[in-house]
Amino acid sequence: MRAPTTGGRAGLAQGSVPLAVRMRPTSLDEVAGQQHLLGRGSPLVQLATGTRENPGGVSVILWGPPGTGKTTLAQAIARQSGREFVELSAVTAGVKDVREVMEKALTHRDLYGSTTVLFLDEIHRFSKAQQDALLPGVENGWVILIAATTENPSFSVISPLLSRSLLLTLQPLTDEDLGMLVDRAVEDPRGLGGSVVLGDDARSAIVRLSSGDARRALTALEAAASSAVAARAGDPEDDDEDGDAPLDGVETVPLVDADTVAAAVDRALLRYDRQGDEHYDVISAFIKSVRGSDVDAALHYLARMIEAGEDPRFIARRIIISASEDIGMADPQALPIAVAAAQAVQLIGMPEGRIPLAEAVVYLATAPKSNAAYNGVNTAVADVRAGRMGVVPTHLRDAHYPGAKRLGHGKGYVYSHDAEHGVARQQYLPDVLEGTEYYAPTGNGFERELGPRVERLRKITRGE
Questions:
Q1: Which of 234, 283, 370, 431 has a Cα at 20 to 30 A from 63?
Q2: CATH number of the domain that 308 lies in?
Q3: How many domains does the chain have?
Q4: Neighbours of 357 (CB within 10 A)
Q5: pTM (2 decimals)?
Q6: What is the extent of the structural domain holding 224?
Q7: Between residues 157 and 267, which one has the greater pLDDT?
């Protein structure tokens, strides 16, 4: 592929400032994704458009995975609003730093009538005492706090600060958002300035490997572009030793293809389209491996999905479904473990989230299996849809509203706790379904014990 160069290699020669930093938006209009937070009149827009006379805006906590734009939003607001802007990182700042910011903010308010915007990155790393130091400034309006965190604020931010702030949740960027960012970075003078040509396969690979993380996408692009330029510089075929000018007198531009991306990021480019056949094939193989109790295959397909950039929340949801559908009451702990893994992914994000996911997968794959509960509810639903319902027995109907007893509601009902063993003989199913059995426990795992108990309960309640 040949193309005219618009920026030569200037786009790669901008000192040591990373491409992701150079490409940070200067206004909210340039922000990719998070459109659910950027509508007209939204809190972030009010923060960006406020003035001294009409400052607007409330303190906000931005919660989302890495690379979704928390720092980008804060800095875009600062540049667009022209307010006093202070940035702290909870990794390095302490109570002393916070108090200094509060004192200066109070001075600016009293002397100049201006409000200070304080951006605090990784607020979850602050201790309770450090977060307490923020309260006076936030409560009295000395500062408008924009705090960023990758961890659930309900667990990592103190309640008084949460109650004085608006919690905004950021979503992983879509493939379209990432593609737009990559395209802009290739052409923008702040970025690569047209110093490379990005092939369609390379663009797709970068988007796929980024997993909704803008910073990761731009870092991969920068590394691949540098590799392509370095390879071109060292290619003897590029030397004009015979004195010939380039084709049509136009300088060629290094091409970034999928192989360049793979070599630059040291990562295999998996053939995995989150919207295509491979997505369905891999998740199908994953579920069937768990169901089939092949723990090694289950971990393999889990790794393929993670490395291909599959949404970890999707994986977690499938694990929860598998725990309910394929294991069920054979091991009642399977579902709580699956739910805990999903919550852990929400709390800690990726890549660490792969660990609780793997723990849940190992537990599920090695657990005893039963689809009895799954089959039972499906059969019950089929009956309901077919009209096999009947009326609720009179003695089970609600008898608390006026006139219910006159209709006979509740008459003859036996309170279970008054019966021996807490189980009373009486009819629970409608007449048309009397004697129906939906749940058929297997002899696997916990259901070995549950099966006989179910039979004993049926004999008592049905008088068999």
A1: 283
A2: 1.20.272.10
A3: 4
A4: 23
A5: 0.55
A6: 174-265
A7: 157
Residues 102 and 199 in one domain: no
Q: What is the CA radius of gyration of the chain?
A: 31
Q: Which one, of 13, 25, 24, 27, lies nearest residue 222 by Cα?
A: 13
Render pLDDT for 137-186 as a digit per residue (tens, 0 to 9).
Answer: 888 888 888 999 888 888 888 999 988 888 998 888 888 999 999 999 99
For residue 226, give every residue at least 6 positions away whose Cβ sits within 8 Å of its Cβ, in sequence order, or none. 12, 264
Tokens coding 54: 């009409």
Q: What is the pLDDT of residues 412-443, one digit of tens each?
A: 888 889 888 888 898 888 888 888 989 899 99
Is 138 in contact with 37 (CB distance < 8 Å)?
A: no
Q: Give phi and psi for 389, each to the nearest 5.
A: -125, -50
Q: Do 173 and 33 contact (CB within 8 A), yes or no? A: yes
d(CA 329, CA 441): 8
Chain centroid offset of residue 181 CA: 19
Tell me the angle at which helices 334-348 and 312-322 cross, rounded to the nearest 10 degrees: 170
In one-letter notation, the amino acid at residue 329 is M
- Is beta strand 143-149 parallel, antiparallel or unpaired with respect to 166-169? unpaired
Whole-number Å distance between alpha carbons of 225 and 222: 5
298, amino acid identity: A
Res 307: pLDDT: 80
List the CATH number of the domain containing 161: 3.40.50.300
Which residues are CB-neighbours of 64 under 8 A, at least 6 positions away? 70, 150, 169, 170, 171, 172
Please state whether 93 falls in left (phi above 0), alpha (psi between -120 and 50) or beta. Answer: beta
CA distance 27 to 76: 5
Pick the most confident of 93-97, 177-181, 258-262.
Answer: 177-181
